[in-house]
Amino acid sequence: MSIIQLEPVTTLKGVGKETADVLASMGIETIHDLLWTFPYRHEDLRLKDLTETPHNEKVTVEARIESDPIVQFLGKNRSRITVKALVGRHLIKLVFFNQNYLKTKLLPETIVTVSGKWDRGRQVINVTTIKFGPKTDNSDFEPVYSLKGNLHQTKFRKLMRLALDHFGGEVEETLPSHLLIKYKLASITQALEGVHFPLDANHSKQARRRFVYEELLQFQLRIQALRKVHKENEHGISIQYDLQKVKEFISTIPFELTSAQKRVVNEICKDLKEPTRMNRLLQGDVGSGKTVVAAIGLYAAITAGYQGALMAPTEILAEQHATSLAQLLEPMGVRVALLSGSTKSKARKIILEQLQNGEIDLLIGTHALIQPDVVFHKLGFVITDEQHRFGVEQRRVLRDKGVNPDVLFMTATPIPRTLAITAFGEMDVSIIDELPAGRKQIETHWLKKEQLHSVITKMELELRQGRQAYVICPLIEESEKIDAGNAEEVFAQLSTVFKGKYHVDLMHGRLHSDEKDRVMREFTEGKTDVLVSTTVVEVGVNVPNASFMVIYDADRFGLAQLHQLRGRVGRGQFQSYCVLLADPKTDEGTERMMSMTEINDGFRLAEKDLELRGPGDFFGKKQSGLPDFKMADLVHDYRTLEVARQDAAYLINTDEFWNEAEYKSLREMLEETGALNGERID
Ligand code: ADP
Ligand code: MG
């Protein structure tokens, strides 16, 4: 704790009760609080040449008043003052709104320095700030703070200047010298000066660079500390799987694992074996082969005498997982069962008994897995698919059914790495960033809606070769408010077009669940040729024979969702096509359509999405779990985030960090934020 953290702002000259109250309402009580209140921008006060300044740009100029002011009253407390002024050899007008008190001061021959917007056409500066006298040096950049109450920028700047002059020397360095040297970072004193009153652009940039690194290092240290506390306190089970059997199983898989799959399998198996509880996120693009990785992990746990569970967000997906896992694992003697909302009560009773006796090794299902009467014999490993569709609470309930089982979250929604290590910071992250060899890229085209007929011709070409097609619509039925493709109308149209030739069916969220199952089953079995659907088919549906997809009003969807939808085709050996029908009305919409036609890789699209929408929108506000940074910006500072992450991961395990004086400030930060007690960051 340094002196400035104790010194109240009221010690500064000019801070009376009233100012102290406003400052307190801004969270400023000590000198430290004040110094760490950063400006949100700087006014660029460098003198500019008016002849080179574009219309509507802000300028600062020195001017000599050339006329008496003309005052106009515009009604209630509103006025406008106009004077002529000479800037260099340029005669212009200065206009002041609602600054009536200036009328006695703006006398001919007075020299003033003014800033404001340059109206090039009318040769007028709309003045927002004025100083009397010529421009003084060292004030090229003036800080602008976000203030409350009747506190003015001028007053606040004065306080900041005072605080820096009196206490700047007392501020203790918060980063160890070897990091300052390694990254050539500004010292804390230089950085504070540069963040508030930079001498030039570089000074300001260096100050910002230091604070960004520091902020991200602190953030990553908190995450690493949390992990460490977890590892030390959360005793999981050490699953001693039978490596020989696991290898045998892998050799029965009809294809060679990609190197990304092998790496991830190793990461998962290592976690299983360790006595700490696995808390891992598995990310893989659509079609990257997560299922087989899950199967290997589950099988490993089963060879050690444990049960496994896999939870999926919908019945269709649970069924699909059950089918593919049974196919892979039953030959190895694994007893697989499916439990879903539609399991009949008699069958359910038997499954529950066998589960409790240990006669079932692997249970797959939906939310039905977390009913209170579902009791496991010896649950060791739990996988949830599409994790962000499950609430935290549901995951906890399932976990509590076993003796602190290992948990793996799988998701096919690629999250940019920067966000993954930030939002899911205390989780380990495994990424399958490679598709199996020989996959054909999905050809994606963007067409205007008026070109629909050519799309139908192309679709028919595919259908004639025995392929199937999806047609995705944003809406179920016609809407008065939104003009977008609706599934019912498109279904009616296509039924007419293909009458007697191809079978068209309709799928949407409002159908009864029996009906949904029937529709999906008939499409899976190839009885249906064209499936008109809303986005309910987005997640995981696997029909390898489908090779053609049309997405109506594609600009209404985000990139991540479009990529998920597109992932429904290209799942077999056939060349597949995706047509985006859209007449986007914004530049961003156009850019999204372009990105889809150019980029096939889900991770690269996710980065693009992040770039277009920003990190807040990427997750939706609620789920984001992203901290509020003062300086750092995850989109632009992701390289620094990565560096900070590596530094934090290293530091947290060194003796120096926990003992030496240089790290005192960082240790105090960990203590204050509760990270050492295992408290989460929010
Ligand atoms: P996703 O990651 O989207 O869940 P899946 O696990 O459903 O992907 O796999 C997609 C398809 O790729 C499946 O048919 C699967 O059998 C196949 N597959 C998975 N891994 C490989 C591989 N290494 N080589 C060839 N095909 C693979
Ligand atoms: Mg899958």
Structure description:
With 682 residues, this protein is of the alpha/beta class. It is 38% helix and 18% strand. It has 22 helices and 21 strands. Strands 11-12-10-13-14-9-15 form a seven-stranded parallel sheet, sandwiched between helices. It has a six-stranded parallel sheet with strand order 16-21-20-17-19-18, with helices on both faces. The protein is globular. The protein starts with 16 loop residues before the first helix and ends in a 10-residue tail after the last helix. Mean pLDDT is 87; it is low at 618-625. Magnesium ion binds next to helix 9.
The helix-and-strand class reads alpha/beta
- The geometry reads as globular
Helix fraction, binned, reads 25-40%
Enumerate the distinct ligands: adenosine-5'-diphosphate, magnesium ion
Please count the helical segments.
22
Radius of gyration, in angstroms, nearest whole number? 32 Å
Largest sheet, strands/sense/barrel: 7 strands, parallel
Biggest sheet strand order reads 11-12-10-13-14-9-15
Proportion of β residues? 15-25%
The number of distinct β-strands equals 21
What integer is the average pLDDT?
Answer: 87
Distance between the ends: 24 Å
Q: Ranges with pLDDT <50 over ≥5 residues?
A: 618-625
Describe this structure in a few short sentences.
The chain has 682 residues and is α/β, with parallel strands linked by helices. Helices cover 38% and strands 18% of the residues.
